[in-house]
Amino acid sequence: MIIKMENNMNQTEDIKDIRDWKIIEEAFEGGGEIARFRRMIMRYRCAMLEVKTKLDVLNAELSLQTSRNPFETIKCRIKSPRSILEKLERNHLPLTVENAENNLNDIAGIRVICSFPDDIYMLADCLLEQDDIKLIAKKDYIKNPKPNGYRSLHLILEVPIFLTDEKKPMRVEVQFRTIAMDFWASLEHKLKYKKHIKKAESISNELFYCAELIAQLDGRMQQIREKIEEE
Ligand code: GTP
Ligand code: MG
Predict the structure, then answer these.
(1) How far is the centre of ligand 1, averaged over its atoms, from the C-alpha of 68 (Å)?
(2) Does the reported pTM lie above 0.85?
(3) Among 176, 186, 189, 191, which residue has the most ligand 1 atoms within 8 Å of its CB, making it the best to mutate?
(4) Helix (H, G, I), strand (E, B), or coil: what is residue 83?
(5) pLDDT of residue 159
(6) What is the pLDDT of residue 6?
(7) Is 167 inside any structural domain?
(8) Are 170 and 160 within 8 A, CB to CB?
(9) 176: alpha, beta or left, given left = phi > 0 and alpha = psi -120 to 50?
(10) In the chain, helix, strand, coil percent, each to 5?
């Protein structure tokens, strides 16, 4: 689940967090590994903050420079310990700090919601041009949508974090979407987890059709913006 930074102190999240950590403690059966795991989570949190700050800085600059701001919202989340454990289990890997660090690219995640499709590429380029950011992987589901219609630009980045006794490159997943793409993905995500849907095939066809409509709408809204800018 994506939670906004300012909602981190939310009580329900805290309770869920405590339950999650209990599962991890049981998986580790005590020992020193849990302390290393907590430190790993702290490192991902720092990496997420580094990239979030870069986006905040771009946001501050662009809101001064142009009459319109390409950013709608920036959301951050750290993968819960339970989801880390489940993803490693799905990959048949035991729960260790090394396995998590070497195999999961999305422990730190940022979602950037933009106004228009071309904002996505402009902001992604601004981030990639920075000399402490390394691009590990790029998945362009806008140019090549998923078969179900899903659209977003995904970047796996590596950013260094500076702690008291170490400098460590850390991976962060950044997803760029328009408001319309996010609207579709949020609903699709909710429906996906509703099990035993009758007429599943016709619903996926319908969702795919909606994704196409949304892509057309994004294109047309961008054209309207361009016409206004020309005046
Ligand atoms: P994960 O194991 O889910 O991280 O997938 P992956 O490693 O194959 O990476 P991918 O880039 O395909 O997807 C990463 C993330 O993008 C997911 O965790 C979702 O947040 C989002 N995503 C990808 N595909 C879909 C989709 O079909 N629908 C929705 N709603 N979100 C998607
Ligand atoms: Mg993921």
Answers:
(1) 30
(2) yes
(3) 189
(4) helix
(5) 98
(6) 43
(7) yes
(8) yes
(9) beta
(10) 55, 20, 25
Report how far residue 197's alpha carbon sits from residue 175's, in angstroms, rounded to the nearest whole number. 28
pLDDT for residue 183 = 97
User: 104: domain range?
Assistant: 32-179
- Count the neighbouring beta carbons within 10 Å of the beta carbon of residue 104: 19
Rounded distance from Cα 185 to ligand 1 centre (Å): 10
67 with 92: CB under 8 angstroms? no
Query: 156 alpha carbon to ligand 1 midpoint, in Å?
Result: 12
Is 201 inside a domain boundary? no
Query: Is 79 within the bounds of a domain?
Result: yes
Q: Which residues of the chain have pLDDT under 50?
A: 1-9
Count the domains in the chain: 1
d(C-alpha 164, C-alpha 157), whole Å = 23
pLDDT at 198: 74
Confirm or reject: Cβ of 138 under 6 Å from ligand 1: no
Whose atoms come closest to the Cα of 188: which ligand? 1
Which protein residue's CA is at the shortest distance from atom 1 of ligand 1?
106
Structural domain contains residue 188: no
Q: Find the 106 Cα to ligand 2 centroid distance in Å.
A: 5
Q: What is the CATH number of the domain that holds 134?
A: 3.30.460.10
Which residue type, as a one-letter code, is found at position 33? E
Phi, psi for 189 (deg, rounded to 5): -60, -45
Instruction: Kindly report, residue by residue over 66-104, the tens digit of the pLDDT.
Output: 667 899 999 999 999 999 999 999 999 999 999 999 999
Tell me if residue 223 falls in helix, strand or coil.
Answer: helix
Dist CA 196 CA 114 (whole Å): 34
